[in-house]
Specification:
Elements (H helix, E strand, L loop, with lengths): L4 E8 L3 E7 L5 E8 L2 H9 L4 E7 L4 H8 L5 E5 L1 H4 L9 H13 L14 H29 L16 H6 L4 H32 L5 H4 L6 H12 L8 H8 L3 E6 L2 E4 L2 E4 L4 E7 L5 H14 L5 H10 L4 H22 L5 H8 L1
Parallel strand pairs: 1-4, 4-5
Antiparallel strand pairs: 1-2, 2-3, 6-9, 7-8
Helix pairs in contact: 5-7, 5-9, 7-9, 9-11, 10-13, 11-13, 12-13, 13-14
Length: 356
């Protein structure tokens, strides 16, 4: 006898989870509110009789809940809340959201967010620690800049942050409170730099344990930090069937909209040769970390290495510099995906041709 399929929508919050259970005909069988705890989730799902298909939106608790629910359900879909925004309607509360999530899952109308590999979990945490320290250092530097700018003391470039010139900068502040504030900010900056170096060392060391590290590190444009960020974010290259799907994930895919695509000639419908096509720019739904990684790598590659000649050739053809850098970034991304999938060594001629 075939098991009854149940679609479970979860609206997840820190204190509680609102759950709606729907059958194949769209009938709500159960509505519940449970505590946000591992035992409560296990008890509720174990009490359901049928083949479970579960969905909830990406958020702070998504990774924890995915690992908890995955062994208990036939299918678990962590869905993209941006994709659901228009489908969820205007009148919303926790119970309505849970019902609509279950309905969207029943209709197979949810866009999944990848939650699959667990082998890079340690690397993910180390990478986030490193990025947090980088962000904190930037904030402290901005506070120091604003402290001196507020007293019309000009500070250009990196001169303000040199340890050897720190005392001279502090003496330019007339008020005792400002001098003490400046000293504390400088101390905070040094502590954060030490923590950043420790986090970077741990992150790079962990990434070297991954089988993809020796393959990707052959490309000099990437470097150990970028390689670690790519491995931690992508997990596996086989998530992407083609380079174009990878470009879309990176925010490097061009979006176009066409109209008047077809015409009727002699009673037959055929596709028009001259369509009305509107280019709308790069896609907006993308992974921001990886876009930054490949944009910065492309900016470096345009000035040296195997991509310098390619970049110069694009400029010689009349392409705008920003579009040429985009082409280099896409070429670099395609090369990364091709090498990672095949596991072969980086070869300038062969890989550049394959990535074209």
């Amino acid at each position: 006898m075939q098991k009854k399929i149940l679609y479970v929508g979860m609206d997840v919050h820190l204190l509680c989870i609102v759950i709606a259970v729907m059958d194949q005909q769209g009938k709500i069988l159960n509505r519940s509110v449970i505590e946000t705890s591992a035992q409560a989730v296990r008890d509720f799902l174990s009490g359901l009789r049928g083949e479970l298909h579960v969905t909830f939106e990406e958020g702070t608790l998504a990774a924890w809940l995915y690992d908890l629910v995955e062994p208990l359900a036939r299918r678990v879909v962590v869905c993209n809340p941006k994709h659901n925004q228009q489908r969820m309607g205007r009148n919303r509360n926790d119970l309505i959201d849970a019902n609509r999530l279950a309905e969207l899952l029943r209709l197979n109308a949810v866009q999944a967010v990848y939650h699959g590999e667990t082998g890079t979990r340690t690397l993910k945490h180390l990478m986030r620690s490193y990025e947090c320290f980088v962000s904190d250092i930037t904030r402290v530097k901005n506070r120091l800049k604003s402290l001196f700018n507020a007293r019309a003391i000009r500070s250009r470039g990196r001169a303000l942050y040199h340890v050897s010139k720190r005392r001279a900068w502090i003496e330019k502040l007339e008020d005792a409170g400002e001098r003490q504030r400046g000293e504390l900010l400088f101390l905070q900056l040094e502590e954060l730099k030490e923590l950043k170096r420790a986090a970077q060392k741990a992150m790079v060391g962990e990434s070297r344990r991954h089988p993809a590290h020796p393959v990707l590190s052959q490309a000099p444009e990437l470097g150990p930090i970028r390689v670690a960020q790519i491995i931690a974010t992508v997990d596996t290259p086989f998530r992407f069937r083609t380079k174009r799907s990878f470009w879309k994930y990176l925010g490097l895919a061009v979006e176009r909209r066409s109209s008047s695509d077809h015409e009727i000639i002699d009673g037959r419908v055929r596709r028009r040769q001259h369509q009305v096509v509107e280019t709308r720019g790069l896609n907006e739904d993308y992974n921001r970390r990886l876009k930054s990684v490949f944009k910065s790598a492309a900016a470096h590659a345009c000035g040296c290495g195997v991509y310098k000649e390619y970049y110069a050739g694009l400029l010689a053809q009349g392409m705008r510099p920003e579009m040429a850098r985009l082409s280099v970034a896409r070429k670099l991304a395609a090369m990364t995906l091709a090498v990672w999938k095949s596991g072969e060594r980086f070869d300038e001629g062969r890989i550049m041709k394959k990535a074209a």
